[in-house]
Amino acid sequence: MKNERLYAAIGAADDELxxxxxxxxxxxxxxxxxxxxxxxxxCLVVFGAVFAFRHDATDAPGRPxxxxxxxxxxxxxxxxxxxxxxxxxSSASFTDIAMPYAEFRSFSDDREQLEADGVIPVxxxxxxxxxxxxxxxxxxxxxxxFSWYKRPVLGKERVDDVYSDLIITAGYQEVEQITDCxxxxxxxxxxxxxxxxxxxxxxxxxxxxxxNEGREKTITFQNESGWYQISGSWNDSYEPMVLLLDWIWExxxxxxxFRIDAGDRFTWSSLDQxxxxxxxxxxxxxxxxxxxxxxxxxxxNGLPYAYEGQYIAHVPEELVKEGxxxxxxxxxxxxxxxxxxxxxxxxxESLGELAELTEQDVLSQFDSSRNQSSISFTWDxxxxxxxxxxxxxxxxxxxxxx
Length: 402
Fold this sequence. Notes:
- The protein is an alpha+beta fold.
- Strand 9 (205-210) and strand 10 (217-223) form a beta hairpin.
- The protein has a 9-stranded mixed sheet with strand order 1-8-9-10-11-6-5-4-3, sandwiched between helices. Strands 12-13-14-15-18-17-16 form a 7-stranded mixed sheet.
- Helices cover 19% and strands 30% of the residues.
- The protein has helices at residues 3-10, 15-22, 38-53, 111-116, 159-162, 238-250, 317-322, 359-363, 391-401, and strands at residues 66-67, 88-93, 103-106, 128-135, 141-150, 164-171, 181-186, 197-202, 205-210, 217-223, 226-232, 266-269, 290-300, 303-313, 332-339, 350-353, 373-379, 382-388.
């Protein structure tokens, strides 16, 4: 489900969520639960790496291969990429995405150690970081993905001022193209536009750059240590991407440090399968007339890590199960999210400990023009974020667990 459809479905899309949904076509990095949609996103990331890397200097007859020098600027890597500005990006993916790897592990908690060991650069301006390693059936590495994110503080910063997605994807060799993910670019007449690229030769290796300012960009190359792609969002300039390129050029990745048994394993379940997970921290919504329409339980190394459940009221239960309640007048929703490790930007939004919340605290979070909002608070060390369109019913639920 696309982000904007998901937010509409829960009926609680605050401004920040809509901003992120609007940018979803330019970045596939936002998710409600940190790892909830990770596998599908990584499929697209890896496909993008292969797609760009398969371009060859011979694809662009008459276009020279640039020779790198110490005076090379970041923009030089993208020198010939301005002739496709008139194109319109269009992307699609099939519902059944065939993953080219068997499973993945997370090394996101190792950021400080990876920085100290010189595996990745220190990027203090990007507070959000993910490191995911994908493995083949035999446990060998398929690819390593480092991701740095930056987002605006809700209500305090413009999106264009701070939004950033910088990603390094690395592997031993060029991987097989994923055929059931499609990315094309078309002009105003619907004709497929051949991507404009710039090829630079540096130290005997060719570097392929695609995209330009104001659009997604990639820098892809293969050397003796493996193949790499650096990608940046529509809002990232050339400079930080080339800084990552220079870093990898001087610090080729040691794949052996990412053994499958050393990473964190994330799996998914539900409260029906694990009813004791977060026991006591999911209210008895049924007693208030709410029907659970969906839920997702995230496990980290087999232990409960995060939960989100969607509960609907004032609608016949069969319509909730069918997902066809949107046209019914008066339906209300409470989308209940539990996080043991909340994202960096969620933490400042906390209203404090649950026991200290007042009715006024809750009601003041609702936009009177839309009667919907989200609130965040802590509860015995857990971070709770709730999206809802029913302030009074939400307050009644919170009173029942205070």
